[in-house]
TrEMBL record:
Domain HTH tetR-type: 10-70
Keyword DNA-binding: yes
Pfam families in alphabetical order: TetR_C_33 (PF13305)
Keyword tags: DNA-binding, Transcription, Transcription regulation
GO MF annotation list: DNA-binding transcription factor activity; transcription cis-regulatory region binding
Residues within the DNA-binding region(s): 33-52
Protein name as annotated: HTH tetR-type domain-containing protein
Alphabetized SUPFAM superfamilies for the sequence: Homeodomain-like (SSF46689), Tetracyclin repressor-like, C-terminal domain (SSF48498)
DNA-binding found in the keyword field: yes
Organism: Thioclava indica
Superkingdom of origin: Bacteria
């Protein structure tokens, strides 16, 4: 049973994913080369295309691992359910910054990878991204109980995008980006401003 074709293929896929993850960590997504990763995985170049449709599909599986780890990190950062929503949002933002800085190349690959034109992202990978929004729903609902479900999801997307944008520009070293030594304090200030604005928006409504 241990030599079944399915088990061998599963082992090959696992080795390729691990090798690709390591290669991206070392060289970034633009430095990922099929020959180098298959050599590290201990398989022939052609074996890559028996395990995955192409290199892009392999990258999606690496990104899925990164998303799973990020999701667990964010969930673990949430305070007790009775904590103020502002505290929960600050904890999530802080954990997001820490994860991005500690896993810079993998985190950037998660958002910079693009499938070829005309190729749709698989549904399973779209669902992997849901955790980035789902963890925001409860604290934002506590902050804005007046929002219906659709508005709450949209506000969660906006909140994520605001924090993510600041982190991305900083880690990319953009001229307009926040210096890395001030990134966390600036994200904290941003979340504080957004939570204060949310209270004002509710009062105005």
């Amino acid at each position: 049973m241990g030599n079944s074709r399915e088990e061998k293929r599963a082992d090959l896929r696992a080795r390729l994913i691990a090798a690709a993850q390591d290669q991206i960590t070392q060289h970034g997504i633009t430095g990922l080369k099929a020959r180098a990763l298959t050599t590290q995985a201990g398989c022939a170049l052609g074996a890559l295309y028996t395990a995955f449709e192409d290199l892009d599909m392999l990258i999606l599986h690496v990104n899925a691992r990164t998303l799973a780890r990020l999701g667990e990190t964010l969930k673990a950062a949430l305070p007790a359910p009775d904590a103020p929503p502002e505290a929960a949002l600050q904890a999530l933002a802080s954990a997001y910054v820490d994860f991005a800085c500690a896993n810079r190349a993998l985190w950037i690959a998660l958002f910079e990878h693009r499938l070829p034109e005309g190729v749709e992202m698989p549904d399973w990978h779209r669902k992997d991204h849901a955790v980035l929004i789902e963890v925001l729903i409860a604290p934002l609902h506590a902050l804005r109980p007046d929002l219906d479900e659709a508005a709450l999801v949209m506000r969660s997307r906006t909140t994520f995008a605001a924090v993510h944008g600041v982190v991305l520009l900083a880690l990319q070293g953009r001229f307009v980006g926040v210096p890395l030594d001030q990134l966390k304090s600036e994200v904290t200030a941003l979340v504080s401003a957004m939570t204060r604005g949310a209270h004002l928006g509710q009062d105005a409504g």
